[in-house]
């Protein structure tokens, strides 16, 4: 990671952020809908955190809570390598711990080696490979999921978690 951005701030997404959230998600994901583990989320409707630099958006994290597990649904750093993604993860982890969550988890895809490295360096463990889950999501939930990226077929979901309970 390069030098962190000194003016970086993180805050919870609020209603007035709706247009910004939709723009970030659409630019990163093609639209606001995100498929994972057989569920199609409208990430623009989920709670989240916005990273700001000088009052301008620098990143977004959305999440879903189910019982004592908090799922990171999307994480988009608009400025790479400057600590934005890490700061967003710290914010969700802090609030998850405060709420008594026992698990912070997420799904990434088999071709996303950058994300796999990023999350493992931040204490997440690979706990499952869901074979052909992306293929099923493409067929059943979101046909616009690309067939490949970086010359690698998108087929499988990788589940990572960070246990929060001591």
UniProtKB/TrEMBL annotation:
Highest taxon above the source species: Bacteria
PROSITE patterns according to UniProt: GNAT (PS51186)
SUPFAM superfamilies the record matches: Acyl-CoA N-acyltransferases (Nat)
Pfam families xrefs: Acetyltransf_1
Signal peptide range in chain numbering: none
Keyword Acyltransferase included in the entry's annotation: yes
Entry annotated with the keyword Acyltransferase: yes
Keyword annotations: Acyltransferase, Transferase
Gene Ontology MF terms in the entry: acyltransferase activity, transferring groups other than amino-acyl groups
Coiled coil: none
Domain N-acetyltransferase: residue ranges: 8-148
Family matches, as PANTHER family: AMINOALKYLPHOSPHONATE N-ACETYLTRANSFERASE-RELATED-RELATED
Protein name: GNAT family N-acetyltransferase
Organism: Phytoactinopolyspora halotolerans
């Amino acid at each position: 990671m390069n030098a962190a951005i000194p003016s970086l701030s993180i805050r919870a997404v609020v209603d007035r952020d709706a247009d910004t959230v939709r723009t970030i998600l659409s630019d990163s994901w093609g639209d606001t809908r995100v498929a994972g583990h057989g569920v199609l989320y409208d990430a623009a409707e989920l709670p989240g955190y916005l990273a700001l630099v000088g009052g301008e958006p620098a990143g977004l994290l959305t999440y879903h809570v189910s019982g004592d597990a908090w799922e990171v649904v999307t994480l988009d750093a608009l400025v790479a390598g400057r600590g934005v993604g890490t700061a967003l993860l710290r914010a969700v982890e802090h609030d998850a711990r405060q709420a008594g969550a026992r698990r912070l988890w997420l799904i990434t895809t088999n071709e996303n080696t950058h994300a796999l490295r990023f999350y493992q360096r931040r204490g997440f463990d690979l706990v499952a490979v869901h074979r052909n889950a992306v293929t099923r999501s493409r067929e059943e939930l979101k046909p616009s999921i690309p067939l490949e990226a970086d010359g690698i077929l998108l087929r499988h979901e990788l589940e990572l978690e960070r246990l929060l309970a001591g």
